[in-house]
């Protein structure tokens, strides 16, 4: 797997159409300005250049995924002169929307602790796996603030209003088995198997058509903000567009010829 190391506080590896991003700001993987800037930079690059069809977001297996925002932010906020300064400071650390805006699927492999903004970032992905020792907490209210990187919205859309309200207001820490039960996680595996599980699922998705995967993600995500009728119309529109692609023709031909499809993303 090719390694790309010119980003600060993250490591990037790529093999074919799969890219893996490791949060790399030891020992706690706090989200600092360098890490946030690097994630935003690579997400922009991936949005503009056709170099991958799926991404995995993780950390090394002996490290927490992220224990939250770098405490330096709160020092900076204390020195802010006005609301405009506060907004600019927070925007420098805010990163979840850059992940959520990616058109291709994003998988998070969450080992160790996933707290605060770390959980907000995880919620911006499409599929989440945890390890048997993973712990999750949205603890901003205990710090006198609220989740500010999309957490108030994405958590409630993931686990429901009542459960998200409890987790946010009580700053309750939950373990991976409970996170799985409430729908925060898709699956739980042993720590040593966490990344391989994410890669296995990513490779399975890559066997399908990349365009179909992107359209499926788009209609599922956008459909949550639409009425049922509007969502079905979008589903129909994207289905019709998909029929004009080479990948769709290859899918039909491979089925008729009883062979594995060879999708090209066209």
Task: Give your account of this protein's structure.
This protein is an alpha/beta fold and 266 residues long. It has two domains: 205 residues, Alpha-Beta Complex (2-enoyl-CoA Hydratase, Chain A, domain 1); 49 residues, Orthogonal Bundle (Lyase 2-enoyl-coa Hydratase, Chain  A, domain 2), CATH 1.10.12. 47% of the residues lie in helices and 16% in strands. The chain has twelve helices and ten strands. It has a seven-stranded mixed beta sheet with strand order 1-2-3-4-5-7-10, sandwiched between helices. Strands 6-8-9 form a three-stranded mixed beta sheet. A hairpin with a 5-residue loop joins strand 1 and strand 2. Helix 10 packs antiparallel against helix 11. The model has no long low-confidence stretch (mean pLDDT 90).
How many domains in all? 2
Summarize the helix and strand pattern as letters.
EEEHEHHHEEHEEHHEHEHHHH
- Any idea what the CATH architecture of the largest domain is? Alpha-Beta Complex
Total beta strand runs: 10
Gyration radius over CA: 19 Å
Relative helix content: 40-55%
CATH superfamily of the largest domain, by name, is 2-enoyl-CoA Hydratase, Chain A, domain 1
CATH fold title of the largest domain:
2-enoyl-CoA Hydratase, Chain A, domain 1
Q: What is the 3D shape?
A: globular
Separation, N- and C-terminal Cα atoms: 25 Å
Q: Which parts are unreliable, with pLDDT below 50 for 5 consecutive residues or more? A: none
Record the strand order, biggest sheet: 1-2-3-4-5-7-10
For the report, how would you describe the main beta sheet?
Answer: 7 strands, mixed
């Amino acid at each position: 797997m090719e390694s790309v190391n010119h980003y600060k506080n993250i490591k990037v590896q790529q093999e074919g159409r799969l890219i893996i991003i490791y949060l790399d700001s030891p020992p706690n993987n706090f989200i600092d300005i360098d890490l946030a800037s690097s994630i935003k930079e690579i997400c922009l690059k991936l949005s503009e250049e056709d170099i991958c069809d799926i991404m995995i977001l993780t950390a090394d297996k002996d490290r927490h995924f992220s224990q939250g925002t770098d405490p330096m932010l709160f020092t900076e906020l204390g020195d802010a002169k006005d609301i405009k300064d506060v907004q600019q400071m927070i925007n420098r650390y805010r990163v979840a929307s850059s992940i959520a805006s990616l058109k291709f699927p994003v998988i998070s492999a969450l080992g160790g602790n996933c707290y605060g903004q770390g959980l907000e970032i995880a919620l911006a992905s499409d599929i989440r796996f945890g390890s048997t020792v993973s712990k999750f907490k949205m603890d901003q209210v205990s710090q006198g603030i609220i989740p500010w990187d999309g957490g108030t919205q994405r958590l409630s859309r993931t686990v429901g209003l009542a459960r998200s309200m409890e987790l946010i207001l009580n700053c309750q820490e939950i373990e991976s088995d409970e996170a799985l039960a409430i729908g925060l996680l898709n699956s739980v595996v042993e720590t040593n198997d966490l990344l391989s599980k994410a890669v296995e699922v990513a490779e399975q998705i890559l066997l399908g058509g990349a365009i179909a995967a992107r359209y499926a993600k788009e209609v599922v995500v956008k459909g949550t903000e639409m009425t049922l009728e509007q969502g079905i119309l979008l589903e129909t529109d994207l289905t019709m567009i998909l029929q004009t692609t080479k990948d769709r023709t290859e899918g039909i031909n491979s089925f008729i010829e009883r062979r594995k499809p060879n999708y090209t993303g066209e």
